[in-house]
Amino acid sequence: PSCPSATWSQVGRTVIGGTQGNATNQLHYPVGLFIDSNDCLFIADSRNDRVIKMEQGASIGTVVAGKLHTPTDISVDKQGNLYIVDLSTSEGSSGRVTHWIDGSKTDILYAAEQLDAIVFDRKEEYFYVTQRSKGGVIRYKKDGTGEHTIIGNFGEGSALFQLDQPWDVAIDDSGTIYIADSGNNRVIKWPMNATEGILIGGGNNYGNRTDQLAAPRGVLVDHLGTVYVADTYNDRIIRIPLGSKTGTIIIGGHGK
Description:
Elements: E1 30-35, E2 41-45, E3 50-54, E4 62-65, E5 73-76, E6 82-87, E7 94-101, E8 104-113, E9 115-120, E10 126-131, E11 136-141, E12 148-151, E13 166-171, E14 177-181, E15 186-190, E16 198-202, E17 218-221, E18 227-231, E19 236-240, E20 248-252
Antiparallel strand pairs: 1-2, 2-3, 3-4, 5-6, 6-7, 7-8, 9-10, 10-11, 11-12, 13-14, 14-15, 15-16, 17-18, 18-19, 19-20
């Protein structure tokens, strides 16, 4: 959205799914989403162990990556290559980031325990992944080299240099990252080269006021610096304008 006061319809439209299954117009526990520059929607269809691509206006999807192990997130670069977070094995808890070209897995770029989300910087030089089990965010070069721990050197916790179960990560044009710090019921931003984060939403205990969050698991930032939060256990989407710590409910908030 280009307007920080934009409004949304309060009635959604189903673009895929609605019934559980493994047909290409069905999903089973979808987790991660990505929309590319052509408005194609990519879905990490977690319990079907695949990624589905939906062209704009289509009613049936296409499987663009399969034989995965519980994929949780996906990113797509400008060349159309896929970067998928899933488990290393069907039984294990170790996560990985795999690189796919034209529907085929080419290599494993990174492997570690319990990964969840992935995002590229605007120049697509680096990708960032959340490591929920260790309260960390790790940066890599696009080819998987150059590991650098942004957050996580001090273990899990609630200080501004710590995280507790980070579920999602977003990035703005300046390279500042935004983290859905689920276990701390907050969203923080972390400028480049910072040593601690800045609270931008929640952090006032678990609750349903507009200055509170309840285990947020999704975060997005637009070019104006407005932050959008999937406030999971409050069943709502919160919008937080730049400079504010109090959000506005734009969708949901009426129960499941």
